Amino acid sequence: MSARALISGRLWKNPERRISGAGKPFGSASVRVGNGDAAVWWKVLAFAEDVLEELLSLHDGDAVAVTGEFKAETYDGRDGPRISYTLFCDRLISAKRRKREETEDRRAEPSQGPIDSNDEQRGAKS
After folding, report:
1. Hey, which end of the chain has fewer CB within 10 Å, N or C?
2. What averages of pLDDT result for each successive group of 10 residues across the chain (126 residues)?
3. Burial 87-107 (b: 16+ CB within 10 A, else e)
4. Cβ–Cβ contacts within 10 Å for residue 118, how many?
5. What is the CATH number of domain 4-107?
6. What does the domain layout of the chain look like in residue ranges?
7. 63-89-106 Cα angle (round to 5)
């Protein structure tokens, strides 16, 4: 049984394209969830081509929501034991993508031009 998570936060630094030991491309990013001392840092890895490309189109500070299987591991930090979170992303949603899609949709719609109220009234009477 594997655990899944849905996190939302902001990218810390630009995502990076990397190559695995097997020669396959993947994306790596850090996501900060929360603020101040309550912030939790997640390492996000994307292997699927569509998710990888979407991740790599984002930049430092962009808001994202990602979901996928995750693992949590302990390590010895300066202040004692800490937890490292890694999420293997299979879906990604960004505010940037939605805004870009809406802009593209608006550009695809035919332009109507200005409406003359007299023309509308004539059309209604005919």
Report:
1. N
2. 90 96 97 93 96 96 96 93 96 73 57 52 51
3. bbbeebebeeeeeeeeeeeee
4. 8
5. 2.40.50.140
6. 4-107
7. 50
